[in-house]
Amino acid sequence: IDIVKQKTPPVPPDPAPAPGPPARRQVMVVEDNALNMKLLTDLLEVHGYRAVGAVNGREALAYARLQRPDLIVMDIRLPGLSGIDAIRVLKADPDLMTIPVIAVSATRRAEEEAAVRGAGCDDFLVKPFSVQGVLATVARFLD
Ligand code: MN
To answer: What is the pLDDT of residues 50-62, one digit of tens each?
Structure first.
């Protein structure tokens, strides 16, 4: 019996991925203090993230719906809509609830931390924060 070996045609290689740097992850910083805003956005940009700012809770919600950031760093003491209320709205919205939120507060009061965590934030940082603490916390959600 002759066995005819059939040659399968060569499979073309997968096309090479498009060249270029990977897209930077977008972090929204919600902060009403201009100095803290600059410190945080500069720190994030230097470390390869795309940082964008919102100065109050309402702006944060509008921006989150429009731009879908990969992560939100949320100050708690904000004019108008507080950070706690903004987190509650974010975490009740099916389109936004999966965006991780790191809350930032200047107080170490246990009741405030409990209220902030109860609003649904994914992590909590106390001011004054350390550069390494901020970067490590951000990286935990994005890297
Ligand atoms: Mn504030």
So the answer is: 999 999 999 999 9
Predicted pLDDT at 46? 97
Report the Cα–Cα distance between both ends of the chain, in Å, rounded.
Answer: 60
In this structure, the number of other CB atoms found within 10 A of the CB of residue 60 comes to 28
| Closest by CA position to 70, among listed 104, 28, 42 | 28
Residue ranges near ligand 1 (ion) with Cβ within 5 Å: 32, 75, 77
Kindly give the distance from the C-alpha atom of residue 120 to the centroid of ligand 1, in angstroms, as a whole number: 19
Residue 35 Cα to ligand 1 midpoint, Å, equals 11
Dihedral through CA 29, CA 47, CA 42, CA 128, nearest 10? 70
